[in-house]
Write a structure and sequence with these properties.
- With 165 residues, the chain is an all-alpha fold.
- Helices cover 85% and strands 0% of the residues.
- The protein is built from eight helices and no strands.
- The chain is extended.
């Protein structure tokens, strides 16, 4: 009887809940942790802010003389962005699924280790500032390419004997 009790205690101490034993679920949870550490929701909000700026332009066109309507719409945009970039949102779950598909569990663990290191924390701290700076660099780069792009388009059209009106 005593042996049976010891065996039962030993077996129960080694038993894990079903969810804990599921390697795919544990990996997905690590992916979510990685996204949390990486500031993915902050980046999602940054992307959403860019979209909001575009939406604001549409609002100005749609409601040019109605500041009250625009103010209400902007508040709703902000609420939606906050909701949709929360860690448990559909968007973040889809983002996690993408990482889960393209990275092995070992790679996810390595990314988490990096993000928890001093260099990883520094990356997280500076990420939003760098994104803003890079957006300005990208704008300037795109603007600088326009003349060359127009020359190439004009040349390609001329080579095909197409006249612009």
């Amino acid at each position: 009887m005593q042996r049976a009790f010891v065996f039962l205690c030993l077996a129960l101490s080694m038993a894990q809940p079903t969810w804990a034993a599921d390697p795919a679920l544990k990996k997905f949870q690590r992916v979510e942790r990685m996204l949390e550490l990486s500031g993915a929701s902050v980046m999602a909000r940054h992307m959403a802010d860019v979209m909001a700026a575009q939406m604001f332009t549409v609002l100005e066109t749609s409601y040019p003389n109605d500041d009250v309507v625009r103010a209400i719409a902007i508040e709703e945009i902000k609420k939606l962005i906050a909701q949709e970039s929360a860690p448990d949102s559909y968007f973040m779950k889809q983002l996690a699924s993408t990482f889960n598909k393209h990275f092995s569990d070992k790679e996810i663990r390595a990314i988490i280790a990096f993000l928890e290191s001093p260099a990883g924390r520094k990356l997280q701290t500076n990420q939003a500032l760098m994104a803003r700076e890079n957006r300005e660099i990208a704008k300037a780069w795109g603007k600088a390419m326009v003349p060359e792009l127009m020359r190439r388009i004009d040349r390609a059209l001329a080579e095909q004997d197409i006249k612009m009106q």
